[in-house]
């Protein structure tokens, strides 16, 4: 079986998807899973930029340093590189599907589809909200990361 490769996608790749990447890196390491992990945005607003300082702070609260992450934009090549692409919300899911090359077999879904009872739920964008919203975002992405690690570990 090929090594899984997982991509987390939000709009700008500075808030939700870097936190999802961080949570899953930790979950995969804790579970002993060999997996490639990255994050991207559907928009090119923050290419090369570090994550939002509030995301950096939230990850640090969980012992993870994401200050070196750099924003990048989703590309058609990602459908060749990744076995799984997870969207943070419905609009980004539509944007991902619009970019999907014909014949791609990459699994694409909402990230919260992994969490029992939360299927179809979006992860709210914390960018315009207060600090506490970043904590809620972490709780969502961490729950999904734990579920994904369990699924990939088999």
Determine the number of helices (DSSP H or I, runs of at least 4 residues): 5
CATH C-level? Alpha Beta
State Rg.
14 Å
Q: Quick one: biggest sheet?
A: 4 strands, parallel
The domain count comes to: 1
CATH topology: Rossmann fold
Mean pLDDT score: 96
Low-pLDDT residue spans: none
Give structural attributes:
4 strands, alpha/beta, four-stranded parallel beta sheet, 154 residues, single chain, Rossmann fold
Give your account of this protein's structure:
The protein is α/β, with parallel strands linked by helices and 154 residues long. It has one domain (5-153): Rossmann fold. Helices cover 40% and strands 13% of the residues. The chain has helices spanning 16-31, 53-60, 78-81, 90-99, 131-153, and strands at 5-10, 36-41, 84-87, 107-110. The protein has a 4-stranded parallel sheet, with helices on both faces. Helix 1 runs parallel beside helix 2 (53-60). The protein starts with a strand and ends with a helix. The model has no long low-confidence stretch (mean pLDDT 96).
